[in-house]
Design brief:
The complex is a heterodimer of chains A (242) and B (447). Chain A is mainly alpha-helical. Chain A has two domains: 141 residues, no CATH class; 100 residues. Chain A is built from twelve helices and no strands. By secondary structure, chain B is an alpha+beta fold. Chain B contains 14 helices and 21 strands. The chains are: A mainly alpha (242), B alpha+beta (447). The interface between A and B is medium-sized, with 24 and 26 residues.
Amino acid sequence: MGIITLNKVDALWWLGRYTERVFTTLRTFLPFYDTCLDHDAERFRVFSDALDLNADVSDLASFLEDFLYDKHNANSVCAAMNAAFDNAILLRPEVGTRTLGYIELAINHLRDSREAAERISALRSACDALLAFWGSLEDGGSSSEVKAFVMAGKYVERLDLYSRFKRPEADFHAPVVRLAFNMQILPERARALLSPAIAGAADVLKLRGYSGELVERVHAIAPVPCLDEDGNVMSATTAVDA
Amino acid sequence: MQSTNPYDDLRVLVDRREGINRELARNGVRFGIYKHGEFIEQLFPYDPIPRVIPAEEFEFLERGLIQRVDALNAFLRDIYSEKQIVRDGVIPEDFIYSSSGYLPQVNEIVPPGGVFAHIAGEDLVQAQDGTWYVLEDNLRIPSGASYPLIVRDIERQVSPEIFRDHAVLDNRAYPELLREAMEFVSCEGISVVLTPGRYNAAFFEHSYLAEKIGASLAFPDDLVVENERLYFTDYLGDKHQVGVVYRRISDEYLDPFYFNPDSLIGVPNLLSAYRAGNVALVNAPGNGVADDKGIYYFVPAMIHYYLNEQPILQNAPTYLPMYPDDMATVMDKLETLVVKDVAEAGGYGVVFANKLDAEELASLRKAIQDEPRRFIAQEVIDFRSLPAVDEQGKPCRRMADLRAFVLSGKETRVWRSGLTRFSRVEGSMIVNSSQGGGFKDTWIPQR
């Protein structure tokens, strides 16, 4: 159970990313939804644009349908939840049936939210189930590597979503610290595997207009590794010697 | 445990059926089917009224099942080495060599620990007079243990008072039995459960059992054979030797170099590592020769031959049309028999002749005469139905069988529970999940 394959690393990373995508999207959406009740639906354009939904925001009902439930739209909440499930289901021995149960719960709540009368309550329950999933993972018997891969994916996704939603730079402090913490848990060669993805996330922040200081902080979490002739990551010491 | 009306005693489980189903869904207890080329996962229909087998009756079954599986293991050891049972004329050789389950590629291989059938799924029914009959021996990759295993856990959470009031043997030791059977035969290295992938009908079971026995869940790409040793490759490219594989891939797809060359889900050269004695395969390849529907006829003879004992459990009365006397009997009373195509599984290829019209009956008669080796015919056992609840929650009775799990390692042991499969259609005897059947927990009261 302690040995993790490359396919499992991929699934852990994307499990972290997709669960976070559902969670932060919904957590950002719910206050918007509230304010839009008193104004026009155009306000939802920020969502449509931020998530590349290309949805018609002139009609609130169709916007909600596209944004939340269109499983054929890769950028919908439903598609992200299904993608989280598709990764989770491969990871039962690593993550545990009890913890995976929270993913199933989140899917069920999202499905139930399609009934308008239950919508807000069910969407909040979906968020609660995802919080419980992360808590259960952290509290459970999974290895620290398994936890770190999920959490690294989660915080990289959070950086991406915060920048999509144009959150102030101060909001990035906590996810950057948590990303750095989880990367430190991983062995050096594992960090090297994730390094390109994290460097990419840093570059995206730059493109979206965030400060050089923030970009550098993210880059510093996973510096581009030095590789030897066989493609193995060299430690700082051996790299200098070489 | 005794009650004139089982609903009185177990009403709580019936009333809480929805809660149990909710928990089954939350735990992802599903099986997959392909419908019109599309993979669909669905919950395995669960009936809340358990099958209760009295302790003394189960002890009788235990003795019979251990005897039967010991004989089948002895048969497999023999048939892939000396073939003494054929030389002695107990089983005609063409029954061996014409069986699709017989694999000449594994001739002369003695598996680690000498065990071939580590996990046997024995399908039984109980007739109206209480007699138990073995209907099938499943020695390849019998599935289904995970369902009563996980549902018991849920039943105990949802209705703890039932288990406080009724002393039922805890069935949650199955992973321990499985782990011990695997450790007994393991060569040097780790344990893995090999799954063909996410879209296999029993993927839930593969992943759940891997979790419960603490094995790695391996996909075919994760495994590689080098120098006749099997390795599991981690994300850093480091290789870890594998000592035992609980493989959930059928023989023909297991190794494209030895079996079906088109297999994309096998592990190239796995059989080389197995042949070299460097890895144990659970169950051993080639076991299909022993659970062939034709070979079934000879299991009582195997018990006499290898163990010098009288069979404790009976076969359903069976005829082999390839024997002239049996052919005459089959032709004489075909309309009262159930005819099985030996090449089929999962409830397919089973024909109850009394359901056929005259034209269909004539066609079946001709097929048997044309290809007598292809069929067996059995007396229809009027087996007991069990109390159940229908989809509206109303009491009803449904036909059910029992799949008992027998694990062989250092010793042969029977799991004190089992998968009770029931037909959801009134009067139907087809209980297979692939054909819409459901499942019940199987309770053995404590003595």
